[in-house]
Q: What sequence folds into this?
């Protein structure tokens, strides 16, 4: 896997991913700041030792580091940069056919959300197994949640919560209690 964004959240997400499956290794890392990348690398070595296979040639620094991680030969990328960058990073990863774990929020403004929706549509067309079809449309892993993107307008004649609770939009698989 490749890590794009080596701050505290990126380091934590990579550590969790490395512990999730015995076959996962970290192969490439990218960040704008070299000190952040090296701190994350050192921390991950302590946590996952032999699962860290990042050679110096696969440590990428700069605003184009995300492209280099995507092009490094990884199967999966973790997008943990600040959210203003995520729409472009997600688009590049999906266009390259990579599996993606994207932290939330996915965007900070309407143009960014439109880019994410366009990337989700491309991902759906590629039928990658990490992008699941559902009754509601496209789903994509975002942080610890599965977020549903409606690709077509829904016609709802009653309040949405009631429609969801009664199963009129499909099977409900999870509930959110409290603020989103």
A:
């Amino acid at each position: 896997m490749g890590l794009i964004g080596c701050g505290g959240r990126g380091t934590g997400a990579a550590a969790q991913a490395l512990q999730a499956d015995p076959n996962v290794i970290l192969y490439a890392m990218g960040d704008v700041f070299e000190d952040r990348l090296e701190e994350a690398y050192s921390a991950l070595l302590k946590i996952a030792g032999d699962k860290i296979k990042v050679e110096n040639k696969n440590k990428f620094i700069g605003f184009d580091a995300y492209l280099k991680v995507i092009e490094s030969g990884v199967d999966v990328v973790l997008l943990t940069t600040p959210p203003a960058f995520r729409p472009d990073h997600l688009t590049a990863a999906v266009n390259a056919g990579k599996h993606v774990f994207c932290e939330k929020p996915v965007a900070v403004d309407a143009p960014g959300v439109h880019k994410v929706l366009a990337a989700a549509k491309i991902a759906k067309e590629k039928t990658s197994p990490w992008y699941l079809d559902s009754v509601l449309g496209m789903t994509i892993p975002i942080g610890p949640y599965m977020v549903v993107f409606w690709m077509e307008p829904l016609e709802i004649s009653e309040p949405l919560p009631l429609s969801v609770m009664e199963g009129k939009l499909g099977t409900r698989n999870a509930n959110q209690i409290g603020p989103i």
